[in-house]
Amino acid sequence: MFKKMDKPLLFVSVILLVIGLVMVFSASNVTSFMKYQASPYRFFYKQLLFLIVSIVISLIALRFNTKTYGYISFVLLLVLIGFLVIVLVYGKITNQARSWINLFGGIKIQPSEFVKVATIVWMSFYCTISNNKTFVLISILLVLIVIIVMFILEIKDKKKKRWIKLNYLKELKKKKKSKVVKKEEKKEEEIEII
User: What distance in Å separates the CA atoms of residue 51 and residue 43, rounded to the nearest whole number?
Assistant: First the structure.
C-alpha cells in the first residue's frame, strides 16, 4: 500500500497538517483561555482529534480500489443532497449561515463539505466511463451553470436580507427620533406652562 504512494505528496501533506495544527494553536490559545475559561490547548486538541480520525479514515479508504468509490459516488451524492435538504429544514444557524446539522453527542457536521468531495469523485468517474466526450462536456457545463445560478440566487437572497435589515434599522432610527422629538416637545410644553 505505501509502496505505491506518492511520497512527495505525502511529505507535503504531513507538513501542511503540522503547520495547520500550529496555526490553530497560535490563533486560538488566548481565545480559548479568555473567552471560554478553558485550557489554551482546547481547540488544538479538538483539531488534533479530527486530524487523527481523518488519518484513520484515509488509511481505510486507501485499502479499496478507486473504482469502488466511483460506483458508489452517485448514491452517496444523492444521500448527501438529502442531508442538504435536512440542513434547510433543521439546520443550525452559525455565523449567520444555516449550514450545520447537530448529531448525537454534540457533534456537528457541515454536509456541504462532503458534497464537494462526492461531486468531484462522481464527476471524475462519470468522465472516465463515458465514451461520448461531447456529452460529458455538456453535462459538466450544465452542472457548472446550475452551481453559478445557485450562487447568484444566494447573493440576491443575501442582498435582499441586507436590504430588509437596513430598512428595519432605518425604521428603528425614525421611531427613536420621533420619540426623542416627542419628549423634547413635551419638555417645551412643560416649560411654556411654567
Answer: 12
Q: Stretch 139-165: mean pLDDT, rounded?
A: 71
- Residue 148 to residue 168: CA distance in whole angstroms: 30
Q: What is the pTM of this model?
A: 0.57
Q: Can you list the pairs that 169-173 forms with residues at least 24 positions away whose Cβ atoms lie under 8 Å? A: none
Structural domain boundaries in the chain: 1-63, 65-129, 135-194
Residue 23 — pLDDT band, cuts 50, 70, 90?
very high
Angle at the Cα of 26 from the Cα atoms of 22 and 31, rounded to 5 degrees: 140
Among 69-83, 91-105, 108-122, the least confident range: 91-105
CA distance 25 to 46: 10
What are the residues whose beta carbons fall under 8 Å from the beta carbon of 98, sequence distance 6 or more?
A: 87, 88, 91, 92
The letter for the amino acid at 118 is: A
